[in-house]
Amino acid sequence: MAFDLKRVLKVMLFASGSPLSVKDIHTAITRFHEQATNLPLGDTPVPEAAEAQPEGVPVVPVESGEVIAPEPMEDDEMYRDVPALITTAQIREAMETIALELQAAASEVLLVEGSTGWRLVTHPRYARWVRLLRNEPPPVRLSPSALETLAVIAYRQPVTRAEIEQIRGVSADAGLTKLLERDLVYVVGRADLPGRPLQYGTTDAFLEFVGIKSLDELPASDVLSPRQIDTWLQAANQPSTTGDAAMGLDETEETQLSLEQAGAKPETTTAL
């Protein structure tokens, strides 16, 4: 059987305890060729101690010298045909094929791509069984206040607490604390402002939370765009005065009567 990239990726996904990235796959391919150069694959002779063992019984190391059972060599052709270079496009195409096959088969697991690579995840229909197995509580939903705060941070970052509160018009303490506890936001640094306030940004966990690979995939928002937010902040910090035009007064007259003058009765004169 010739080398099958899709089958190899399935095995890597199953065995990986963390998201599988393109770099991880390239590293595995490089290690394979390094080991193949040092120890060429071929018909490896089976040690006598291994031949004496009944079929299905593992070989136990002995004191005189460790006896390691050789890897099965039925698929030598697959190992011999491993290409020296596998492009990122080939890996991505194979991953997309695996994901589509799992969806078409209505599988209990799905293949998703996150900010750090691909991983197999449980279908949401079976999430409750996983929680029961691990004895975990149901997930806690974010409050509307926390979601609004998270949206401002995602589109504005890095952003200070004062800017969040100016945009939302209310205190951001509760929502910001909840987001920090759930590792959705973190302290990026300090702003170059009086008092050096802390600035906040989103984490990789936020990308997984919303199901995107990078911040560039966030939906376009005219309301939360940096330019619109800057306009709001400038308006809040420099309130404009209300002129005569905004009050509906006539700006063409040189002088305006005061309320007292307008309410006073004109003096009457009597002719002699």
Structure description:
- The chain is mainly α and 272 residues long.
- The chain folds into two domains: 1-44 and 75-138, Winged helix-like DNA-binding domain superfamily/Winged helix DNA-binding domain (Arc Repressor Mutant, subunit A, Orthogonal Bundle), CATH 1.10.10.10; 144-237, Arc Repressor Mutant, subunit A.
- It is built from twelve helices and five strands.
- The chain has helices at residues 5-15, 22-38, 48-52, 76-80, 88-104, 127-134, 144-156, 161-168, 173-181, 204-210, 226-237, 259-263; strands at residues 109-114, 117-122, 159-160, 185-190, 198-202.
- The strands form two sheets. The protein has a three-stranded antiparallel beta sheet.
- Strand 1 (109-114) and strand 2 (117-122) form a beta hairpin.
- Helix 1 (5-15) crosses helix 5 (88-104) and helix 7 crosses helix 9 (173-181).
- It is elongated.
In short:
It is built from twelve helices and five strands. It has helices at 5-15, 22-38, 48-52, 76-80, 88-104, 127-134, 144-156, 161-168, 173-181, 204-210, 226-237, 259-263; strands at residues 109-114, 117-122, 159-160, 185-190, 198-202.
